[in-house]
TrEMBL record:
Catalysed reaction equations from the record: alpha-D-glucose 1-phosphate + UTP + H(+) = UDP-alpha-D-glucose + diphosphate
Homology family: Belongs to the UDPGP type 2 family.
Keywords, comma-separated and alphabetical: Nucleotidyltransferase, Transferase
Pfam families linked: NTP_transferase (PF00483)
Statement: the UniProt record of this protein carries the keyword Transferase: yes
Any GO molecular function: UTP:glucose-1-phosphate uridylyltransferase activity
Descriptive protein name: UTP--glucose-1-phosphate uridylyltransferase
Protein role: May play a role in stationary phase survival.
Its EC number(s): 2.7.7.9
InterPro entries to which the protein is assigned, alphabetical: GalU_uridylyltTrfase_bac/arc (IPR005771), NTP_transferase_dom (IPR005835), Nucleotide-diphossugar_trans (IPR029044)
Enzyme superclass (EC): transferase
Organism: Lysobacter korlensis
Length: 298
């Protein structure tokens, strides 16, 4: 089996939940402490050994390309100042990976965004990383998914056990055991099932390792939920194909930071700041005092 080396990052969304901040700035560039969210995602891909990264972008997303490009004037200024620490941080984002960009064009859903990567990916297995889910670097989810995909020859999606009352917010998987505690075989997938109808509480989160056959399926997948081409629907077709390699789910129990809406975004910043060696020591006691004072004032 071909060693997985390519990552696809869909980044064409309008970010309407964060307006007006995203009126002129891509939501992927919103800072999480001191790095844009998209950089965490690229770093995760690189940490899993994926050095060829394709971003699926849209209009007004040039800031993404600029962030990962060289800024020679800034670098020269930092050199003159002798500011080695900041220079290293600036250079780090420019040297992370071999980055490519293609526009999605029509906003026809995640499945359509993934399909736009077909020419770049070719007939190789590849990873898809969604920017709303940040996975802690200490919990190597993606590398484990790659290992399982290579071992089984199938596609692998990341699953998270959610409260049953939250199941309608996710794609939900029907699963069967494989003999490995955190690896299941997926037998069915439904995108955002109606409240109370979910077959399980295994929710699909934004990490996928896909076989190239997904492109063939997506080309024949009709618009589904929200009148969009759903990646979930394509994976359901692949899971039901007895001649295919199957679709597996890796149940993730590590640290995940959701930046998909305003409240979860704020929580993610607080959690990561608390864990930072350079910030946490001062930030944690301040935060504890602030919370205590706010409770008293209420």
């Amino acid at each position: 089996m071909t060693r997985i080396r390519k990552a696809v990052i869909p980044a064409a969304g309008l970010g309407t939940r964060f307006l007006p901040a995203t009126k002129a700035m891509p939501k992927e560039m919103l800072p999480v402490v001191d790095k844009p969210a998209i950089q965490y995602v690229v770093e995760e891909a690189v940490g899993a050994g994926l050095t060829d990264v394709l971003m699926i972008t849209g209009r007004n997303k040039s800031a993404l390309e600029n962030h990962f490009d060289r800024v020679t004037e800034l670098e020269a200024t930092l050199v003159l100042k002798g500011d080695v620490d900041r220079l290293e941080k600036v250079m780090h984002s420019s040297n992370l990976a071999d980055l490519h960009y293609v526009r999605q064009g029509d906003p026809l859903g995640l499945g359509h965004a993934v399909l736009r990567s077909k020419m770049h990916v070719g007939r190789e297995p590849f990873a898809v990383l969604l920017g709303d889910d940040l996975i802690d670097a200490r919990d190597p989810l993606l590398s484990r998914m790659i290992d399982e995909s290579e071992r089984t020859g199938g596609s692998v999606v990341a699953l998270l056990e959610v409260a049953p009352e939250m199941a309608h917010l996710y794609g939900i998987a029907t699963v069967e055991a494989t003999g490995t505690d955190d690896l299941v075989r997926i037998t069915g997938l439904v995108e955002k099932p109606a409240t109370g109808t979910a077959a399980s509480n295994y929710a699909v989160i934004g990490r996928y390792v896909l076989q190239p056959e997904v492109f063939d399926v997506l080309e024949n997948t009709k618009p589904g939920k929200g009148n969009e081409i759903q990646l979930t629907d394509a994976l359901q077709t692949m899971a039901a194909d007895p001649a295919g390699g199957g679709v597996y789910g890796l149940v993730f129990r590590g640290r995940r930071y959701d930046t998909g809406d305003r409240l979860d975004y704020i929580k993610a910043i607080v959690q990561l700041a608390c864990e930072r060696e350079d910030l946490g020591r001062e930030f944690r006691p301040w935060l504890a005092g602030f919370v205590a004072d706010s409770l008293v004032s209420r």
